[in-house]
Amino acid sequence: MPFSTEKVVPAVLTQARAGRRAAVRFSIRRRRSTFRVLPVFLLLSILSPAAAAAEIQIEPKVGFHGVFQLGRPFPLEVNLANIGRPADGILEIQVWKGGATQGGVPYPTFHRREVFLPARSRRTVQFTIDPDFLSRPLKIQFTSSAATASRELDLRRHFSPAPVVLSVSEGSAVPLISLGASLTNRVVALTLAELPPEPRALLGVSHLILYDQSLRDLSRAQLLALDDWLAAGGRMVIIGSLNFTLYQEPQLGRYLPVRVTGVKRIAFVPHGEAGKGKAIADVWAQTATVLRGKIVTKSQGLPVLVENDWGKGKVVYLALDAGRPPLSTWNGLPKFLQNLLTPAVGENLSLRPQWSEAIFSQLLLSPSFISSYIPTGSLFFATIGYLAGVFVLSWLWQRRHITQRTMALSCCGWILCTAAAGYLFFSRGGQVPDGVLLAATVMENAGDGYVEAQTNLALFSTQLREYSLAFGRGWMDLMPLAAPAYAQPGQSLVYRHGGGATRVQLPLKEWGFKLLRARYLERLPLSAAIERQGEQLLLKVQNQSGKDLTDCWLVAPGTRIALGDLPKGESWTKAFPLGGAAGGDNAEQNRGRGADEVSLREMTFNDKTRDILFHASFFPRDGAEAPWRSGAALFFGWVRDPEPRVEIDDPRIRVHNYALYRAIVPLAGAEEE
Amino acid sequence: MNPLLRESLEVFFAEGHGLPVYFYLLIILAPVEFLSLYLPSLDAQMWSGSGNLFKVCSSTAVLLIVYFALRVANQEFAPWRFKPLKHWLRDSGQPAGVVAKGQVAFLIVHIVCSLLLSAPLLIWAAAIARAPLAGLATTLALILFYALCYGVWGLAALVFWERRPESRQVVIRCFFFFVAVVSLLVYLPLNPVAYLLAVLGRQELAPLSIAGVKWSANIVHFGFHLVLGGAGLAAHRWALKRGL
């Protein structure tokens, strides 16, 4: 075959061109496809961090299944769900306090807790909150570097004006279904796990009804919360059931005033309106022996209804099984059960110690108190020293003992030295504290070894700084004194929860102060009882606490007796003639006064601060409705070196603790006289 | 050295005729400082007894230093020891400018001495009341400024009524109280004490509104005092020239 270069070369060239064109086309196609894919990559690169970031969802649960009593603390459960990467942040609840109902300006309080949420996790955080008004929403916020989430909650549809009744029952709350309709209180059925671990959260609960329920699964915190709630005035109603072994468990047994031994059928004859005396046969009833308390109702020799005091509260035990026939089908059951839910005795507000800016200003006016935070002595001597130096120099100059140059240099040197030294001493040294915390406590016997302590607190700052107060076990309430309407806005409280304690953060300006009230219930083996026996007063005081009682007094209409000190571990049983016939060195007669009024006016102690607290706060003179104005006997004594109820753990804050134990007993027969 | 300044220094410090001024200043300021700790008051959420210590001391120092500056400028202390203006202007042939400079220089020396002597008490009060150093420096500068602005009127009164010392005394006292009261009544930030308290309390002062135009309180305050001091200096210089 002949080879023609003329033909071959163009063909090769054509092929080469075609190949080049194809390569260019491919390259263009590749670039086009790259440009098409690029936005997808860009989009992915933008979205990928978001996909990796934490995403938090907040789900709150208010009160007890959405119900709480207005004006009382209640539990708030916040469920946090993280569907992204781990988040370490702060969960904050903003609650509004003050406002028109409290006679002050509204201000926010913040409850904060540090929360770590692992990737794709859920966590439940419990708070106890206490808003003063509900017109502003509750704000829940989680803030972390990884994510932020917030949620607002309108509490207005959750509140109840009356206290809540809780019922805890293993199977069902059969006896309570009919009860709910006849009560003004909201009845809420809970599981055991839903009981809050803080006693404060139960303060809006009037009664807790236990039926056919084991308490084995109750945590220690929940048990302690129940103890403290009972001591604070809560009422527990334990209704018996056929499963009597549940009632023999120690967790439930500690509340029972009886020891349950078994169960049997009895004929129960209800008394009062509920039953109209008609017997109900074959009712299941637990057999038990009474350990403590008072038997209210007996039937066929069995204690059917037993009541026992628990601090200021009460435990009521009903031996009958109200959840099973024939009692569960009885028409009078709701009325009968309702009779068990007697309301607690309301707090006597006249017994509360007074606390106000006027009282605090009286304390601050006291020279002994001023010198505790201001170096008055140092300032006095510094001033005298400075003036003396100037006068000596001028005298030397007048007497021509020093030259003009020496005089000028000495004068300038003296002024500069004293000014600089004084500035350093008064601003950094001189034992001037950053702040002063005054805690004035009145303790009263709450029964069963419990003491109710009402503490007035004043935190006063000489510096611009934040203070952190820790409240130990047993604190029930903390109320900042309502800031008056003219006060500066922006005063807020921050509660920091965590580590098993709650701390209150208080930012204060220089020379600013904050007044607070706190209430505690704690075990303290200190009790005083006064009885009237004819024309005599019998006083029994037992001081098994670790503190001495000093400057003790017994005051009754017409009698005022100084008893001296009662050391720790000792007790007194003393009888005194009533009505001014006491005699003796320590007795003072109060003739010329009202027969029922005890005289506290002239009482003084060896401490000006104690005098002010006693007359202005603990036993205010203007307390017209106070029991000591109308025929009551008083016993009181100062607790030596009382335990600080508020821990501040800062040596730069000076703490003054005052505590008075008192017992006020209305004298039987005083009114008749 | 200026002959008038030398004479004033001689009479006041070398002979000791001026020392009672500083004695009065210290003996009033020191008890005010100490007792104000024991005369406390409680404001809304603020314990003002010790917190107001520096304010109380500064206000007292302003009033005392301005008042004594007026009296010293007016030659109320040992007036017989000072040569009359006629001597300086005519017999010694000193020009009016030299006489004016000498008198102003001595006024400044006196004000600085007063400030120096009261400085430790003010500094201690600032330390106790936790007042910032900037506030302290501002207070000292303001006291110097006010004492100069008001003190020059003492010099003017001295030249105007040199031969009638009783009239002079009445005039400068009336002037002192008149300016203090009128400034309080007309526009509060004009008053030195009110202004100083506002500065120390970090308060916003209301602007002065005239015919719809608003003037900053600071401008009005310093403008007023600069005009007052300038007018005093001008009147002093004019009176000296008239005396020639």
Describe this structure in words.
With 673 residues, chain A is an alpha+beta fold. In chain A, 23% of the residues lie in helices and 38% in strands. Chain A has 10 helices and 34 strands. In chain A, the strands form 7 sheets. Chain A has a 9-stranded mixed sheet with strand order 22-25-20-19-34-32-28-29-31, covered by helices on one side. In chain A, strands 8-7-4-5-23-24-21-33 form an 8-stranded mixed sheet, with no helix packed on it. In chain A, strand 16 and strand 17 form a beta hairpin. The N and C termini of chain A lie far apart (153 Å). Chain B is mostly helical and 244 residues long. Chain B is built from 10 helices and 4 strands. Chain B has helices at 3-14, 19-36, 48-51, 53-73, 85-91, 96-128, 133-160, 165-186, 192-200, 217-243; strands at residues 42-43, 46-47, 208-210, 213-215. In chain B, the strands form 2 sheets. In chain B, strands 1-2 form a two-stranded antiparallel sheet. Chain B has a two-stranded antiparallel ribbon with strand order 3-4. In chain B, a hairpin with a 2-residue loop joins strand 3 (208-210) and strand 4. In chain B, helix 4 (53-73) packs antiparallel against helix 9. The longest helix of chain B has 33 residues, at 96-128. Chain B is globular. Chain B starts with a helix and ends with a helix. The model of chain B has no long low-confidence stretch (mean pLDDT 87). Classes of the chains: A alpha+beta (673), B mainly alpha (244). Chains A and B meet through helix 6, helix 7, helix 8 and helix 9 of A and helix 2, strand 2, helix 3 and helix 6 of B.
